[in-house]
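sry for the spam today, last one i promise. struct tokens for design, 403 residues
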């Protein structure tokens, strides 16, 4: 079986691949602008949050909070530095992705979902209990299988490949591939409902949309203007999707405490991001043995991957249990996300975390350049990097097994 994923140079570039007409060139897709115009303002906005009504220990503001600003700015500086470098030669002709390659991504995804959630066929009442507000998820009834159920993440890769293939204009997408993408969306939504994992839907949609924009034509002034202000709608879309998920997940438990589900979800959405920053700083304040210099927080997946986790733990130790102890001792279990930035400090200290953010920003900037030029590295990775950026205040996306 021959799998192909490459650029065919001799083919003429279709009209929509012209750089001036593609959504890939929109101003708000630049990583440095995402960081400085979205991530940093939200981070600074945390200062206005009333932590005392949610958590007992408040660590914002303070010196670590100020250092977090430096880390975020370092990420933007690294990305801008990369974009200032001379780009490689153009490769605007969309890649050709074989049907066999698409199936190699789709079939393991479907099989992993079947293994993971198949046991629910014998316990359908669990799903009904979620709908009735009697339980939040089914994690206590079924479990994941490390190294097997993680294959559901092939669905994210499929979404990126499907977006490139369907928008490039050089290949036809088969009915089977369209059905496959629809199945991945449905399964991700089911996972968010049954497993209480909204990120499963977010990552598929974000990666698909960003990859789709690589060759999305903006052929007239009206389309370009609409696309240029599209980010203004982002917070409202997020709020609506969050409200829809929380209505089934948590509203039943909090309906007596809020005037409406809208007030509840707005407060809860803000709380998730604010407490993540407070949590990350709190770990640094309450522990003294860092930095660990073992990558346990930056490449968390190495420490839980079957076959190699024991090797890494025996060689470098595993302080990850320390964060669990901190969260259980000082904080509320439902707001337990530690933001990505302070996890870097745990691993590399002050100088090391700044250098890490500069290097990561540079890598993201190079991926963006490749994304605009139609190079394979950029096309396949930049959607993931965008997701990392927009989730970085709450979640260390690049360090997780799902990536």
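last one done:
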């Amino acid at each position: 079986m021959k799998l192909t994923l490459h650029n065919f140079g001799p083919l003429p570039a279709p009209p929509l691949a012209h750089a001036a007409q593609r959504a890939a060139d929109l101003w708000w897709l630049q990583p440095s602008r995402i960081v400085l115009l979205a991530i940093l303002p939200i981070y600074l906005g945390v200062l206005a949050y009333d932590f005392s009504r949610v958590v007992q220990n408040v660590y914002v503001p303070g010196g670590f909070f100020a250092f977090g600003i430096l880390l975020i700015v370092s990420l933007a500086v690294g990305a801008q530095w990369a974009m200032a470098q001379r780009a490689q030669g153009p490769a605007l002709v969309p890649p050709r992705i074989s049907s066999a390659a698409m199936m190699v991504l789709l079939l393991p995804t479907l099989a992993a979902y079947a293994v993971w959630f198949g046991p629910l066929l014998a316990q359908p009442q669990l799903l009904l209990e979620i709908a009735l507000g009697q339980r939040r998820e089914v994690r206590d009834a079924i479990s994941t299988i490390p190294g097997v159920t993680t294959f559901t993440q092939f669905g994210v890769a499929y979404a990126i490949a499907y977006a490139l293939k369907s928008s490039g204009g050089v290949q036809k997408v088969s009915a089977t591939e369209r059905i496959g993408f629809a199945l991945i969306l449905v399964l991700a939504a089911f996972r968010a409902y049954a497993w209480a994992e909204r990120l499963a839907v977010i990552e598929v949609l974000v990666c698909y949309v960003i990859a789709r924009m690589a060759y999305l034509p903006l052929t007239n002034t009206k389309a370009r203007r609409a696309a240029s202000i599209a980010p203004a709608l982002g917070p409202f879309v997020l709020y609506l999707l969050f409200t829809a998920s929380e209505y089934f997940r948590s509203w039943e438990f909090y309906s007596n405490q809020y005037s409406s589900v809208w007030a509840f979800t707005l407060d809860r959405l803000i709380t998730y991001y604010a407490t993540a920053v407070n949590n990350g700083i709190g770990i640094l304040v309450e522990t003294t043995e860092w930095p660990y210099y073992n990558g346990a927080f930056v490449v968390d997946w190495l420490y839980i991957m079957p076959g190699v986790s024991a090797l890494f733990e025996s060689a470098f130790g595993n302080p990850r249990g320390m964060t669990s102890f901190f969260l259980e001792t000082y904080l509320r279990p439902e707001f337990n996300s530690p933001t990505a930035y302070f996890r870097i400090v745990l691993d590399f200290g002050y100088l090391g975390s700044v250098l890490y953010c500069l290097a990561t920003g540079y890598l993201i900037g190079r991926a963006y350049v490749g994304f605009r030029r139609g190079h394979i590295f950029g096309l396949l990775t930049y959607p993931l990097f965008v997701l990392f950026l927009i989730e970085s205040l709450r979640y260390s996306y690049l360090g997780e097994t799902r990536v």
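Residues 1-19 have pLDDT under 50 and may be disordered. ok im logging off now
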